[in-house]
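Hey team,

Filing this mostly as a record. A colleague (T.K.) asked me to run one chain through the structure pipeline before their review meeting, and I want the input and output archived in the tracker in case anyone asks later how it was produced. No errors, nothing strange. Just documentation.

Input sequence:
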Amino acid sequence: MKILHVAKISDNKLNGVNAVVPEYVRYQSRIAEVKFMNYNKISINGLSEWQVEFDNLENILEILKLQDFIPDIVVIHEVNNVENIKLYKTLKKANIPYVIVPHGEITKTALKKKWLKKKIAYFIWFNKFIKNAEAIQCLSENEMINIEFKKEKFVATNGVNLPDKFKSYFNEQTTQMVYIGRLDCMHKGLDLLLSGINGISDFCRYNNVKLAIYGPDILDRKKILKGLISKFNLEDIVSLHNPVCGQDKVEALLKNDIFIQTSRFEGMPLGILEAMSFGLPCIITKGTNLVEDVCEFEAGYDAGTTDQTIADTIKFAVNDRENWKNKGAQAVKLVSEKYNWDIVSRETIDNYLKFIRS
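Output structure:
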């Protein structure tokens, strides 16, 4: 089986798609023949043996033919790239099937963001791109439910690599919560989180509850967060930090007690999977798409969907200190049994096989 993955990515691992696409390629190559094409036309670290260099999309099949690699199926990551339009037309002419991995882009909630601009773009370009796909690969059941396009859908999640370090102790005199991800108030629900903390600020101060937020300052979003922190007078509770990756991220996770993410919508958030793989219990909203698994494995706390439910859940989690260690162990078990890349890759390829035409 020959699989071509297509995406528009860079080496900036602070972006979830940039982080997971190389893992798709590496792990699926253990089972099938895999190549990768980057719309950005830049080399990605660690993918040199799989990456296809090309001049333009019109002759991509000729380039692949010279490499004796005409794909049985093409996996296209994300929808909102205009390059997808030229590529899908080329694939259609050659009768090569493709599936789309939207990474949360086409749920009802996501499409409401900048809805007029998206409505025009989808009418002109992307509706046809989606229509001609064999299927949509959803990263969770919840994402699948919230995609209204009339296409066949299947669930195949992102994965995570299990680390060699795990949370070994929890703070006794304080509760250290941490969020690592994009500083996007709407998408990541950081406004809900700060509003919730504002509602229980006296409780947080009395119980020495702290929140550390790590993320890149894109489109001046850090300024928005600073404004909310100042508005709610939370400077003594909430701290903002530069983005972390690699060993710095590992240290940031291990020195904190609870990972918290209050997204309104997601595909499959890698940050939560990574935190659980290190043994951190998580406080998460329904929009993260991981609440059902976390509750089933007793690996964290369901924070609902509102600032009030988030506040109530933080209070409950702080008072549930005696169960943190067990919940952290269950978080590791959840990731190892359902979300490690070896398992995820095999299940995903089994789904791809259904859409290969003879």
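Quick notes for T.K.: Residues 115-131 form the longest helix (17 residues). The mean pLDDT is 94.
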